[in-house]
Amino acid sequence: MAVSKETLALFKKLRGADVCDALDSMGLQDRYEFALNMRPIFPGIRFAGIAHTQEYDYYDRKMPAMTYEEFDQKQYKNIEDGGYSAYNRPGVERYKGGEDEVYVIAAQGSRAGILGSANTLDFVSKGVVGFVIDGTCRDSGECIMQQSPVFCTVRSYTHPMGRIRVKSDSEPVVCAGVYVCPGDVILADDDDVICIPQWIADEVARRAYKIQQKDRVDRRRFYETLGREFDETVELWPDID
Fold first, then answer.
1. Domains in the chain, please, with CATH?
2. Helix, strand, or coil here: 17?
3. Does pLDDT of 38 surpass 90?
């Protein structure tokens, strides 16, 4: 069951804490929160989108010494054609990016830098709203400067070529301890990343919205007590059934 645009719009308003509480209320504690070493590359990243999954596996094809010209020609060339590309495999679609997608990569915690400053910009230009990788984002200084919305478990400068290779695309994966299917909702904020299975997304969004609305009412009262000026976090939302 595909997640509707209306339900996704609700998730874009919600906090991970609201969603986590909603899952708790449904008897689903501690199933869909990513491992605690999954962290944003800079504070303030927030997104919700539809999971596009890929899995990578270790691939030991070490580069021998070669001229720079050979390296430049071979690093992105298919392995079957004598190259070292991590991104190509016969029968596996190469990720191109899509509107409202979150690119979820199960990379076994590898230090091989699958994400970086160039490809994250490319994918964002095609509508991708976030990246979640059990593995590495390299060029992290540039990614921070350009505000690439990346959560990762590893920081490293290591190139992926010859170290890791794409294994599958658009199939269920286990990423940082969470089972993720293509089409699930992925929500991320400063606290962590959480997956919402598509088959329960409507109910989770409804409950999380109510939890957030109640929290706004309570916090608004505290603002009043303190004489604090209201901000967007205490604006009251329309009630839903």
1. 13-31+198-241 (no CATH), 33-196 (3.50.30.40)
2. helix
3. yes
